Each structure stands twice: as C-alpha cells, then as structure tokens.
Amino acid sequence: MLQGPAPPGSPSSDQGTSPSLACQLHAELLCCRTPSDYIAAILELSSLVVRRQHRLLLHWDFLYHLTPDGRRFRCACDTVHRFTADVVQRRHQALDRLGREAWLKSKQGKTVDFIDILLLAKDEDDQDLSEEDIAAEADTFMFEGHDTTASGLSWVLYNLACHPEYQKRCREEIKDLMQDKESEEIEWEDLSQMPFSTMCIKESLRLHPPVTAVSRRCTEDIKLPDGRVLPKGNICLISIYGTHHNPAVWPEPQVYNPHRFDPENSKNQPPLAFMPFSAGPRNCIGQNFAMAEMKVVLALTLLRFAVRLDESRPVRRKPELILRSENGLWLHLEPLGPCCESRPPAPLS
C-alpha cells in the first residue's frame, strides 16, 4: 500500500497488501529474503486450523494427517520452518566464518537485527543458544507478529476511511509532529506524541480485535456468578471479541468512537475490558512493538494519502485465527501532494 497510489479510480485491497508490508518489516528485522512463500503458507495454516477445529474427529493427529487437509497442513508447516531455519543457518555460517570479535566489529554503528541478538545471546549456563532454539524464537517473531499486526493496521485504515473527520484529525496531529523535521523520519520518542492517533488505533483494536479469542487453563476452581464451577485443569475459551462488545462496559459497542480512550474517559475502565493483546503473564510479548509498527505505518500513510472507502465492496467480517474480511478491505488511496512520491517507508530509529 505504501509503495504508491493505485491508478485513478482503482481501489487497493488493504488486507491483501498489509500482510506483505507487515511481514516485510519483520523479515527486515529478522534479516531474510522477500517472504512471499511464507505469507502464502501462513494464510494456508490459518484457514486449515479453523477448519480442523470444527471437525471433532480430526482433533486426533493420526486421523488428521491421513486427510488431504492434514497433508496440506504439514506441507505449509514445512515451508514456514524452512524459511526461518534457512535464515538462521546462513547467518550462523557467516558468524562462524568471521568469528565473534570480527562479527561484532562489523556491526559497530549499524542496526543490530533480531537474528544477531539471538546468535550472540547466552542461556542461563552461559552457552550459545542452539539453532533449534533460535529457529523457534524466529518462528514466534514472524508468525505471531506479522499477521496480527497486518489485521490491526487494515482495520484501523478501514475505520478511518469510514470516519473522515477522525482521519483528518489524525493527519493534522501527525503534520504538527513532523513540521519541524527535515525528513519524514519518525523517531521513537515521536510515538508518544500521537495521542489522538493512538486513541484511534485502540478503538479499532476494540471494535475489530485481530485475535478474537484465546484459550486458558484454569489453575484453580473458578466459581461463576450463577453458582456453576469451572474445575481446575479445564481449558476455557475466552472471547476477546465478546468482551470488547459488551454493552455493559462499552455503550453502543458497534460504534467507532476513539474518545472512549481519552485518558479522562478510560481511567475508570475495568482493567480487563480491553485486551487486544490478551492479558496476564501469558499476554502478547510483542504488543509494544506491534503498536509502534501501527503508529509508524499509519503516520506515513496519512502523510501521503487520503484513505477513502470503496462502497461498492461490502465488508463482512470473517474470524479465522485472525479477524479478516471475507473479500478483503478495499480502499481508495488519493495522493495528497509531493510527499506521496514513491519511496520506501522511513525507518523507526
């Protein structure tokens, strides 16, 4: 989406482009090649997992792996694991070839990527992490981050396209923030100076949470208000979507209203009423990174383009592993001026 405007009158699919953008951002931090095969495999896995959940007999692995879906699942998993394993192996070989001291010297004054950090890390016994451990961390970084962030970003742009008055206010806030800068480079400290844009992102995450449900195992018996008891050891499905649309907490829950997250309005909000990144000790470890990504991409998009809704393509929510729209989210991008020239997004420094 950020690479340039579509031809006049031609909408672009936000949910088709945002996963590529988010995955490319993660791939650059991971230091790997263009991840088109990886994206296709992740989308395949998302669809297969949801389909399997609805078929009780396929919950047994030995049955599932005999089915066409099971074979497709294993093939997609192999693609995902090969992608990250290849990155780790190539970088490990480079590190072994140069040696640790020369490697560190070559990195002086440069951005250290995620793989560098993992390769140089030590475990509790002061031993290097194994390739398997590093690959597992890389898998988590890519899989857990790019698709959820892409969904969140897509719905933010969609909601701002539906509400041009909020979009205009976000753009004015970002322009004020950038007016004294020589280049369109967003610094880390700038992210805390975007209060209204942050409110718009949070309200979109409430209305359209990328992850609609999470599961948790009861660590003790839990007595419900009606007297029923959830026994210790049971696994419960917690609806984030339902929590975010609870009218007892959120009046008119289907209405997009960023002012819900004004500090004055949200100070009396129950702590677990808003949990797009889950909650507790097993919440999303990358939530700050995800929020930073969304703020940067939103800012650079609104500086270059006005985002308009394509009313000829109705939106119908489709909750899989990630909340999507059945036919994509189609938006018109209208260039605003010289700043919309084709160039890569400015880095977060």
UniProtKB/TrEMBL annotation:
Transmembrane segments: none annotated. Gene3D superfamilies: Cytochrome P450 (1.10.630.10). Heme binds at C284. GO terms for molecular function: heme binding; iron ion binding; monooxygenase activity; oxidoreductase activity, acting on paired donors, with incorporation or reduction of molecular oxygen. PROSITE patterns: CYTOCHROME_P450. Pfam families: p450. The keyword Disulfide bond does not apply. Its cofactor is heme. Keywords: Heme, Iron, Metal-binding, Monooxygenase, Oxidoreductase. The keyword Glycoprotein does not apply. It comes from the Eukaryota. InterPro entries: Cyt_P450 (IPR001128), Cyt_P450_CS (IPR017972), Cyt_P450_E_grp-I (IPR002401), Cyt_P450_sf (IPR036396), Cytochrome_P450_Monoox (IPR050196). Belongs to the cytochrome P450 family. This is Cytochrome P450 family 4 subfamily F member 22. It comes from Gopherus agassizii.
